[in-house]
Design brief:
271 residues; alpha/beta; 7-stranded mixed β-sheet; 3-stranded antiparallel β-sheet; 39% helix
């Protein structure tokens, strides 16, 4: 039902979950679902709350082909930069001889190029995603944005960069702010991008699961969910990559997703 918390210089109602599973269990326990249950399928992607919950638990893979197509385009841009770093190593045996060393009688005159771990391997990147969107954004638009986010996370995983992924969405109503914060993936856990697809790309993540959380917090009369605003908790988190909420139809992320993913990775000095 939201805890009054001092965040970023403001008192806000905060529902914070340490895992997506915790959030699902809490939202599912809502005894009087309103818009989270009755929202139109064209708005939410799913027919009702039960379908959304089932997909969230069992997995939603409908966007996998689109993610794979985007990953194919990305591989053309970054694969040649993902090779292991090689270091010259001398020994008494090896792949080739250093004639100079051999002529001086140096026993370790043979050399090989030994692959060494790249600096990015073992690195942890914290990603904070504001998944909020006003009603003016279509379910398809939210879905397409999520596909790009899935491609970013999947690309980082292929680069052997561990990801800690958080999601947040905030609204203001009746002079009050409510924020839902959830850890979607822990960096110490094995990544399965398919498990993240619902949370990152299905509109029901916001319009059914999160709406149920807001209903439990009493967000406005008859659960008029207020006005979507920028995240509050994210400012105190210190994310490496912070994805802001949807505010416009035209952006580099949406117009040129390959360029956006590559520039984001470059900005982290990972390639």
């Amino acid at each position: 039902m939201g805890t009054l918390t001092w965040v970023n210089g403001k008192n806000i109602l905060l529902d914070k979950f340490d895992s997506f599973g915790d959030m699902l269990a809490y939202a599912n326990a809502n005894p009087s679902k309103k818009q989270s249950e009755h929202g139109d399928q064209s708005f939410c992607e799913t027919a009702n709350y039960a379908e959304a919950h089932k997909l969230a638990v069992e997995g939603w893979h409908a966007v996998r082909p689109e993610v794979e197509r985007l990953l194919g385009q990305l591989s053309e841009q970054i694969d040649n930069r993902l090779d292991m770093v090689s270091e010259l190593e001398y020994a008494t045996s090896g792949g080739a001889v250093d004639v100079g060393r051999w002529l001086t009688g140096e026993p370790e005159c043979m050399f090989s190029f030994v692959p060494m771990p790249n600096e990015r391997m073992g690195r942890v990147v914290k990603i904070f995603i504001d998944y909020g969107a006003s009603a003016s954004f279509s379910a398809e638009f939210i879905r397409q944005r999520g596909i790009v986010l899935c491609a970013l996370v999947d690309t980082l995983q292929k680069m052997r960069v561990a990801c800690e992924v958080w999601g947040e969405t905030a609204v203001t109503f009746s002079n009050q702010i409510h924020s839902t914060v959830v850890k979607l993936h822990d960096a110490t856990a094995q990544m399965d991008i398919d498990e993240l697809m619902f949370a990152l790309a299905n509109p029901s993540m916001l319009r059914r699961i999160t709406f149920s959380v807001r209903e439990l917090a009493g967000c406005g009369p008859s659960c008029s969910y207020g006005r979507t605003i920028h995240t509050e908790y994210a400012a105190d988190y210190g994310a490496d990559i912070r994805i802001e909420r949807l505010t416009e139809q035209f952006s580099t992320m949406m117009q040129n997703p390959v360029e956006w993913v590559v520039s984001t990775i470059k900005g982290m000095e990972l390639i």
